## 1
Amino acid sequence: MYSNALEKLRERGFVEWSSHDKELAEHFISDMVTGYIGFDPSADSLHVGNLVAIMGLAWLQRLGHKPIAIAGGGTGRIGDPSGKSSERNLLSEEIINHNVSCIEKQLRHFLNFDCGENSAMLLNNNDWLKKELFIEFLRDTGKYFSVSFLINREYVRSRVFDADKSITYTELSYILLQAFDFNHLYNEYGCTLQMGGNDQQVNILAGMDLARKKSGGQCYGITFPLLLNSHGEKFGKSESGAVYLSQDKTSIYKFYQFWVNVDDNDLEKLYKLFTFREIDEINELLNEHSKNPHLREAQKTLAWEMTCRVHGEEAAKRVRDASAVLFGEIDIRDVDKELLDTLSAEIPFVETCEEINTNLTDILVLSSACSSKGEAKRKIKEGGVYLNGIKITEEGTQLSSTDLLDGGYIQIRVGKKDFRLVKFISKS
């Protein structure tokens, strides 16, 4: 007997809709179910918004079933029109292949590809779609789709009758290609389940229908809810835009801070979706957090776990310590050059060849912490300037070599949140 993954996924908040609930539950209990999710290679990195789907696959595997991740190298050449008001820019095959390669590496942080019978699989649908001949595809697949079915889709109907938007035949064919994927996976790998975001329900139903009509197979579907934060905003966005899993697009420090800053009201939902902690453990953790919510211990724990999973424990420790420095939990005078180097990439930073024995007011202006010496003196007089975490009260304070941190740095802070790093480098 296998685990009822439908029950578990529903308990943790993954299920927005599912087909054939009773039959699917029985299928999970009696068989090792092979299920898949497709990932759009329109960018060279997945983002936090993809984590619901990724963790859906990870939970499927954890419960004893077999996950397949599809990198849409073929369908990505068309682009899913669902939820789009205009046609996507078509990407070159070279760019798509690069994006697929990047996505594959990120998925390996969540899925086990070497654990026996239910090892995860990573496939690229371009491997079979590129072999399809146009006439054969129309004869063998297109005949199962009526025009009325296609144009009655809400996202199609909203554009097909709008002269300013319209929709191309290329986009309209996407649903056939995704359905073809499901049928192919059913025949080649015994895949009976497709999962995806709630906007994929129609595409999933089309694939189920094609597998039934063309191959006589009974297939199933599950969709995940759109993840919103407590303010009703799409989860996975920061002030600077989407939060990516690639450190080239979102620094590890910013990735860590994203989780540290999540709202208390979102914690239970995020722990259920994005961690493997049992429900009782989550409840206990959140109960402890509620006693001192201002310490944000639950957020810090979540940030640690997510950063470890995506970027590794060493990187997570580095940015955790960097965060602790900025928030006064670690004395900056005790940290090493490597950690200061990490901070220099995350907060305003400047290098100078000036001698260390210069006036602090000059450094405040040099670092753009103050616009003028006059402002710098005023800030010092008001008690709002800190050097290496220590309040400065004398307007004429001169720096000396004893102020240098490891690597030739000094840190200055103006007010509560304006942190700056200055690195003194040799003129030679």
## 2
Amino acid sequence: MKKNIATLFAAMATALAASAQSGTNSPYSQYGLGVLSEQAQGFNRGMNGLGLGLRQSDQVNMLNPASYSAVDSLTMIFDMGLSGQVTNFKEGNRKLNANNADFEYAVAAFRLMKNVGCSFGIVPFSNIGYNYSSTTTVGASSTTTTEAHTGSGGVRQVYLGVGAKLFKGLSIGVNGSYLWGDYDRSLTISSNDAYVNTITKQYAVSIHSYKLDFGLQYSLDLTNTDNVTLGATYSLGHNLNADPMLVTTNTNSQTSISTSDTLSVKDGLSLPHAFAVGLAWSHNRKFVVGADYSLQRWSKLAYPEFNPATGEYKATYGLLTDRHKLTVGGEWIPNWQSRKFYNRIHYRLGASYATPYFKVNGHDGPKEISISAGFGIPLLDRWNHCSFLNISGQWVKSSAKDLITENTFRINIGLTFNEGWFNKWKVN
């Protein structure tokens, strides 16, 4: 057991180091806190992030901490995953491809006591990563102006959660997370005219805060083979106690002499209140189908903005908007008791529609449509513990009128270990 524990913590340390990498190339990550991560594990991703009403004894489902009460009492579950993606960007007649890979998550769960489960792990909250430029010609002259945009960073979270079954059918849970990260966004405006100065605006912030998520599940047996589970979550909105900074540097193109000015916004970033509800129906351990809906109240928050007319850098309302997301999905297992390998494979499918949480030039950002399909491949060890290789593919389209269209194809790979740490061995 000591060896297993050491291996577990070594894997978590490796995942922690890898989490510093960016998981996006999207220019839309320059808005808000960046591109929001799904925070779903391998089996959820095959159903496009479905999870609020799911209660799995052999998988970690951090989407609803109330689900931890369903964790098997004899095993320690450890799950980690990564992804690789290719994205096509289209603006008018111009097209560009980009690709990247990223650590996605490392989580674990185990039974604390009867009807009480615990989970912990590290997952991304948001990602920032972009690098692009545009050049315009001034009038009929040969003078050009170039705007170069770069950004990197993101927010990560390490969490500890507990879920408890209060009485038959009803479970509650809570995840407490520590958030940390930073972002560095810059805009450089330069010209081929030697008499025009180069201006660089650098936006930066460091985040160290917390996050609280509460969950509830009520499960009802309709028949001996049919069950429905209602799930709901609430995420606490609060100020992140972060002070975004803007450093403006003006460089003389002839002398290379620079002057700079620094502005900051006290407590300029916040998390929104978020609500979600989901319903799942399962039949005889053969299939499960469900739907989730979530609402994040970003429109109630102000966000830092520089006003060139007044020279002020301050928190401004109206830059963010409420994010709605609807997900449907399901899983089918031909026969989990079969001796035939392909009959025990978990087949998954899901689809989602989501609205943006930020605005671009006063208009709503791109809406998102996505579909996914995946497999859960059971892996039996010599002690008959069932682990899983979770593989899924996901297509995501982000688009809005007169904005860049993104088409992303993503491969998610997750490995779930079910270790029999709590088995009691009997010697005859």
## 3
Amino acid sequence: MGDKATRIEALQQAIGGEVLLEGWLYNRRSSGKIEFLQVRDGSGTVQCVAVKSELPEEIFARCAAVTQESAVRVRGTVREDKRSPSGVELTLKELEVVSESRDYPITPKEHGPDFLLNHRHLWIRSPRQHAVLRIRHTLVQACRDFLDRDGFILADAPIFTPAACEGTTTLFETDYFGEKAYLTQSGQLYNEATAMAFGKSYCFGPTFRAEKSKTRRHLIEFWMVEPEVAYAKLDDVMQLIERFLEYAVGRVLESRRPELTLLGRDVAALERVKAPFPRLSYDDAVKILKEKGQPFEDGNDFGGTDETILTEGFDRPFFVHRFPAAVKAFYMKRDPQDERLSLSCDLLAPEGYGEIVGGGEREESLERLEARIAEHQLPMTAFEWYLDLRRYGTVPHAGFGMGIERTLTWICGLEHVRETIPFPRLLHRMHP
């Protein structure tokens, strides 16, 4: 077959014409004299109808024998079909089997999560996973577009780092030509350097946490977008988070409603994501937990169950701010009104999903930052470059980090974060 292939997503513009499709057979059913071939090409799925009386015997026999996930090239005429999810179907004229697939393991039936994760390289071909990953694409694109249009400069942070950012207990250590190095937990510290150079900067990349957790909210490797702003305070960064998330969710609603519908997502819940978001102090959040009978020790960080309980009273994302300094990173600025507290905030997604954004003001004082590094028993020499930012033109500054996968889990209404990344890295799972 010659000619350039048409993408399935563009078939609406080709009604009445003849097209060539290049893709894979998703499914096939037969009525004896008619074969119904579901063909996918990555942009969508369309039904191709092969009528025995209208085709050469060889081509119809090929249609009747083609197997699931065989690679195919199909030629036919595009017809409008309002009953079809794509709005069209193809009257098949020619079929070429490019490569045959035998005994495809993921058949159109129920499979357990372990089986599907073992076959993740094939599972991502399924409609549900396809929808999630298309929404992920749009979310990532929206994040970049918002920051680019808002004057931020993309300045990605390194993956190998000489020291901890978020605490020493969740570090992946590796050998860097005879030196100890660690996989990054966050681009935070490097963002502060680029923000001092450009005023507004962000990084976007993978981060790694060696947490021995099996909860539905945790991945070992995940992606974060992390903006940082010079001359910004805590309130400034909370307002930035509001605008940022409202825009990103709006883009998903605008571009991915069919995918959200396929997932069974209640889009009304997403339509309520409008700034300003409610704000709770940490102390007020603790009161809510205790009123609801949740055993919680004041001064601790919130666990997953605590966050789930807190979300029960909200129909949109909300902030919890001014956490105890003891549960936040060494670089977080203390509240001048109460030294026990930090100028920090977490944004919690409703419907039980919990934290999706963490941010706050950074300590700009050289002396106080040196004291915090010593308190946390971190190696001062590894942070000399970071301390230089306080020696040479220090200013108040603030920023946040948003986990793409947790945010996507909430947007899609999923039960587990593992479906939000093409190849999840979980505790005791590194394959495929």
## 4
Amino acid sequence: MIRELIRKKRDGLALTDGEIDEFISGCVSGEWADYQISAMLMAIFIRGMEQSETFYLTRAMAYSGKVCDLSDVKGVKVDKHSSGGVSDGVTLILAPMLAACGAVVAKMSGRGLGHTGGTVDKLESIPNMHLDIEEEHFKELLRENGLCVTGQSENMAPADKILYALRDVTATVESIPLIASSIMSKKLAAGADCIMLDVKCGSGAFMKDVPKAKELARLMVQIGRRAGKNVQAAITDMNRPLGRAVGNSLEIMEAVRILKGEEEGPLLEVAMLLGSRLLIMAGLAENEEEAGGRLAESISSGEAFKRFERMVSAQGGDVRVLNDFALLPLSEQYEYKSSRSGYINQVDAQALGMAALSLGAGREKKGGSIDYGAGILLKKTLGEKVEEGEPIALLYTQKKDLGRCMNYLDSALIIGEKRPAPPLVYEIIE
């Protein structure tokens, strides 16, 4: 039967709900061989999918394993998803801010791969922090603190794991229907009521241009709404890093400083934007002014930081590190100095992410090890003035050969005469 389904999609015809269910069922059961699944993926990549097909595919993938039922947890459950970027620690800041404002933040996050970071890896840099949490304990923590961040369980959307592994080796990753179904199947399986999608666009993102990012965002919003979820999407810039820290321990430190009200910048701006939208969607604020005020108050009052402390403690983490960064892993420090005077005209997010990866801060391949203490801290970032010989960045690594990292930084950090002011947010998709 799989041969007939492949032929039908190869010829540009739409698959029915039942045919897609059959395809996904065969993937999970092992009935279809990898080469048959790969052939179907290539047919989808070339021929595309109608919106209804993509919805059916997403639903079938979501229900291919365990679906988290949060109906017995009081309150509006909210979730935020980023399509992946560099120095994108928004979840670390946003989740406790939202919890402090009365939302129930049920966040299932992933690990980093390649030049993009993962929230689970960042939190695991905190000693003894547990991110592998069973559903009942997950719900218990939500009831107690209004907040829990956990890794995605092995039995959640197992079809996605199968399809993604084959997409990765068959050059079919860049298919908008396949990207949308992969992301949204996991969001539907995670059980939140309101979902805010942060679709990154630029050099450090999977979507390199705005039109493609908008197409993906619109499709995911439509899928979510058809599934009965309240979904919006923001198209945000990832041509530059959001924060100054790239690396796991370093990003925890930066998040803590922001939550304590000691730092501001694009990272907080994006968190405020996404958080305001979620509070309104959840019925916890009437408008953006009220929502923004409540989020700002959560920081100034110290309540957001307290929520973060409570989450870390409840999940076994050593809460002392949040007030004593010396207890966090941090590798040996080196300096990267400016070769000229001027303004930072460009901070290429992908090249910066690759530089951090070369220091050991990320995984070269799935399942690889990482150095939690490795990474890059930008002393100067986009638009800031720098003098010749002045340190632009601090590098942290256990590696002795920094040549590869220096080459990436040379291409990432461009100094010029003008001070740039690029947009941070391109569009909101409602």
